[in-house]
Amino acid sequence: MTSSHKHDESHQHHLTPLTTYYKVFAGLITLTILTVATSLFDFGVMNIVVAMIIAVMKASLVVALFMQLKFDDIGNKVTFLAAFIFLSIFILLTGSDLFFRRSPEPLRIENTVAAGGETDQNKLRVVTPDLLKRGKEIFSVQCVTCHGAEGKGDGVVSAGLVPPPRNFTTGFWRYGGSPTKVFHTISVGSPGTAMASFSSLSIADRYALAHYVRSLSPNHPDDTPADLKAAGLMSADGKPLIPKAEPNPLPIDVAMDKLETPDEVIMPSGPIKNPGHPGAGIYMSQCLNCHGVNGVGAQLMATGVNPSYSINTASWIGIKSAWVSNQSEFEKIVEGGYPGHGMPAMDHFTKQELAQLYSYIREIVK
Q1: 312 backbone dihedrals φ, ψ, rounded to 5°
Q2: How many distinct structural domains can be found in the chain?
Q3: Are 196 and 165 contained in the same domain?
Q4: Is 337 left (phi over 0), alpha (psi -120 to 50) or beta?
C-alpha cells in the first residue's frame, strides 16, 4: 500500500450509525419538552441556571454527535473547548461586576478644604486672579439667564421676574457688598425674589462667584469685623475662626431626573378667540406656548439642577406698545427677536404669514 493510500485512510470520516441519530433526536425532543415544562415554574435566582443546564445538554448532543466532535482529533477538540472556556470566563467576569456591583452613593458636592480638613473661608474671601476667573465661568453658566452677560439685570428671563434681577453695575447692594455678605446671599438666596439658593455649589465656588459679582460693581466694600463675626469667621475677641462646613449631598437620581424632565408650560385655559381667522393657526403653533391663550401670558417652568427658574410672559390685553399699531415694528420684532426679553428671532415666516399673524394678534389684544 502506498503512502498516499495510507494518508487517505487516516482521514476518512467517522460513519455514525443511523440508530445513534434517532437516539440523539429523541434526546433533543425530550430536552425541548423539559425546557417548556421548566418555564412553567419559578425557581427564583436558579431560573437562568436551570435553563443553561438544559441548553448545554442539547448543545453537547449536537456538537458531539451531529457535528462529530466526539470522533474528531484531539487538536480540534481542544480548540473547540478552549473557545467555550474563554466565553465562560468572559461571562463570569461580566456577571461578577453586574451582580455584585454596589448601589451608587449620593453625589456630594465637595468643598475646598484647608490643611486641617475644614474650609478656610478667611483665605477664600481674599480675591485672587484664579478666583475671579473661576467666578466668571460660574456666572456665565448659572447667572446670565437672569442677570445678563454683563451683570446689568437684563438676562433673557428678566422681563418676567418681579422684582427684576439685580443690576450689579449700579453699585447697590441690598444685603451688603462685602465678600462675606455677597457669599451669604449666594448661599441662602434672596427672599421675595427669584434669586434662589446656590448652596449646592462648593464654598470655594461661591466665594469665586461673589468676587466676580463684586468686580462688576463700582462699589465693593471690604469685610468689617462685624461682617466676619456674623459669618462665623471671627471670635468675639477678634481671633480668626475656621467654621466647619458639612458637604451638601445631591443624589445622582435627583440630578438626572431634573435634567431629563422636559420644560413645563403653565397656561391659563379658555376658549380661543376667532379660531377661524387665517392667523389663528400660526399663533397656535408658534406663539401659544410662550404667550398663552389669546395673548394673556404664560409661565414656562424651565427646569435645571441649580436653580430651577421660570419665564413669565406678560399679557398683551390692552397693551400700548408701538408694535400694536405698527405692522413694520411688529415684523421687525418677530424676525429679529427681542434681545434681553427671551424672545427669539423667528425669520421663517413669509410676508403673508406675518400679515395674518399680525392681524390675528391685533384682534385678540383689543
Answers
A1: -110, 120
A2: 3
A3: yes
A4: left
